[in-house]
Amino acid sequence: MFTGIIEELGVIKNIKKEEQAIEMTVSANEILRDVKMGDSIAVNGVCLTVTDFTNEYFTVDIMPETVKATSLKMLNVGSKVNLERSMHANGRFGGHFVSGHVDGIGKIVEKNRVANAVYYKIEVPPTLSHLFMLKGSVAIDGTSLTVFGVEQNVITISLIPHTLTNTVIGDKKEGDIVNIECDMLAKYVVNMLSNNVSQFKKDRSNISEDFLKDNGFINS
Predict the structure, then answer these.
(1) Half-sphere exposure of 21 toward its Cβ, with a 13 Å CA cutoff?
(2) DSSP secondary-structure letter at 104?
(3) Neighbours of 18 (CB within 10 A)
(4) Which of 10, 28, 107, 156 has the smallest number of Cβ neighbours within 10 A?
(5) Same domain, 72 and 127
(6) What CATH number should be reported for the domain holding residue 177?
């Protein structure tokens, strides 16, 4: 579990790309202070497992499903990445619940500066558009952000100077892609409501005149 508060920017030191899998080594500082084998680290919002490390870098394996569903396949040696360690139960919770399980890839379609902020319009997959709401939360490349606009399959986010400087989103331009994780609470609510509606429709389809008579709702 993560919070979407990026701890530092790492740099890809080495990357081995196969047809469906990737092994990646990332240079870092802050997050390596207490790293252990098997720890979870979010890289651009993707929860990955540490398979090797030193006091200067860590290595992770990226499986086929993750390669297919995220933007990690676009990374190369020298690419910067957002890094966050999994949260401690006794730590501050500054962002929102982020699982590190990316829901889809979005594309930046517009980028504009307004005073001290930069607004991004991001096109999201149509299958995810119902999971966004005004002033709701979203994780973009692992960064916890607030949704300031929702138009069909386009959402608007705004970055303050600190976020522009300390996350990879600040360097991205129109046409670039980003990892998107929708708000976990919204996904649970939508899933539960969908299941309840489906069950209601199924139960209702079994109600017949004979059923109503047998259960005392209609007099014979």
Answers:
(1) 6
(2) E
(3) 10
(4) 107
(5) no
(6) 2.40.30.20
